[in-house]
Amino acid sequence: MKLTIDRVSKQYKNVIAVDxxxxxxxxxxxxxxxxxxxxxxxxxRMICGILEPNGGTISYDGxxxxxxAYRAVLGYLPQDFGYYPxxxxxxxxxxxxxxKGIPKTQAKPRAExxxxxxxxxxxxxxxxxxxxxxxxxxxxxxxxxxxxxxxLVLDEPTAGLDPKERVRFRQLIGDIGKESIVLLSTHxxxxxxxxxxxxxxxxxxxxxxxxxxxxxxxxxxxxxLQQNA
Length: 229
Description:
The protein is α/β, with parallel strands linked by helices. Helix content is 34%, strand content 27%. It contains eight helices and ten strands. Strands 6-7-8-3-9-10 form a six-stranded mixed sheet, with helices on both faces. Strands 2-1-4-5 form a four-stranded antiparallel sheet, with helices on one face. Helix 3 packs across helix 4. The longest helix has 14 residues, at 104-117.
């Protein structure tokens, strides 16, 4: 199980959003930090096959990011999670399960399992438009897990979650990271500090730090602020 990112670049007109980034990610949780404009979201969208790099390659166990086989192992929660307001929560998950090609016999129990996992089982028949921001975010996390992904990409997943929900989310991601590759982007340094096996840090489109972090290296948030001063 390996995600290989090899000298990946993305340029918009005269702006280089991602500049020759390389990394190999294996099973575990990886926390991606960076200020606005650092290139985090662009990198994640390329990893998810939504954007095509101008240079370099992305693959999972040798399978290219532009293939159906790659998409079959991928789960993605974008920063701006789109939803259908008139759908009930359970119907929304069943609809997305159908789009992902999950058989009906598997989709219903999987949807119910995930609604319980994100503590939405009691409102599964409520319309999504009635949900709070935190509830919608939890539904977004559930849809990203529908196909039991081996590669899970989460862009600002704790946005809108209250402190208790954030703790529950950290535990969930920690468990998923035991069997999958989880790439988690957030501006909340404490979330990453608590659950990430390794820290990734971007600045001006480049990867400026990749490795484990422990107390011997000092305070992670202080280091992050120094890099972005």
